[in-house]
Design brief:
two-stranded antiparallel sheet; mainly alpha; Rossmann fold; two-stranded parallel ribbon; 248 residues; 47% helix
């Protein structure tokens, strides 16, 4: 801008001091390599909650900021071949982080346990997310258009994945029926079954695919692997279908 007064963004010295202290950093600075050469990640931490406060402060200074589209705008700047798939693992809360992830996503894949409270939490969260997206679509159209964002937000697919499921447990069966009564065919056909391998994954900080089968009975290990393989195959088919549709 020729005249700084015309710039809609606040100057650096207008930002709160705790935000200025972070310094100028690129998103790329937070992306970490892993032991798998084709997988990168951005690790989370307790301080990530600070984002909620920093964004609220920044939004108060910059009324024209499309707060819900930060991640989407960043991803649009990446080369098409930098990543095939980007997965957002968000807290089940309607905050700046989860709104940005939901707005940037092409597919929503929501895991939920088979308990009543998890059912109540999942249905409430999705209802609140839908309301938030509707409010953004109705109230921020011109702002989104100026930022190159498309409203209303739509998804190629929305799926609910049941986890820690026990097929022989009547309560789990009843909750599966309840999910299907609400979400119908959007509930994944292949739940992730509760096995000893799943129980130990958190304890040993290892996925089912990394665990040593000698730490459990061979049948338990094979059943856990088969459950995850079926769930992954369904997930892969969902992603490929959405991917193909986006290129048409």
């Amino acid at each position: 801008y020729d005249d700084p007064d015309d710039c809609p963004y606040p100057a650096a010295d207008e930002l709160p001091e705790d935000v200025q202290d972070i310094g100028a950093q690129r998103v790329q600075d937070f992306i970490q390599k892993t032991c798998w050469p084709t997988i990168d990640l951005i690790p989370s931490c307790a301080n990530a909650a600070f984002v909620e406060f920093a964004r609220a402060q920044y939004r108060a200074l910059h009324k024209a900021w499309s707060f819900f589209g930060c991640v989407s705008r960043y991803l649009d700047e990446l080369p098409d071949d930098q990543y095939d798939l980007i997965i957002f693992d968000c807290p089940p809360a309607i905050g700046y982080q989860s709104l940005n992830a939901a707005f940037a996503a092409d597919v929503l894949y929501i895991p939920s346990g088979p308990g009543y409270w998890e059912y109540d939490s999942t249905t409430s969260y999705l209802g609140q997310l839908g309301d938030a997206m509707e409010d953004i679509g109705e109230g921020f159209g011109p702002l989104a258009e100026d930022a190159g964002l498309v409203l209303p937000k739509t998804y190629a697919d929305i799926r609910v994945l049941m986890t820690r499921f026990e097929a022989t447990n009547p309560l789990h069966q009843a909750m599966m029926d309840a999910f299907r009564n609400v979400f119908g065919a959007d509930v994944c056909q292949n739940p992730i079954e509760m096995t000893r391998a799943v129980e130990q994954s958190g304890r040993f900080q290892m996925s089912v695919y990394e665990q040593d089968y000698r730490q459990m009975t061979r049948e338990t290990w094979k059943r856990a692997r088969a459950s995850f393989d079926r769930a992954y195959d369904e997930f892969k088919a969902t992603v490929l279908k959405a991917w193909t549709a986006s290129e048409e």
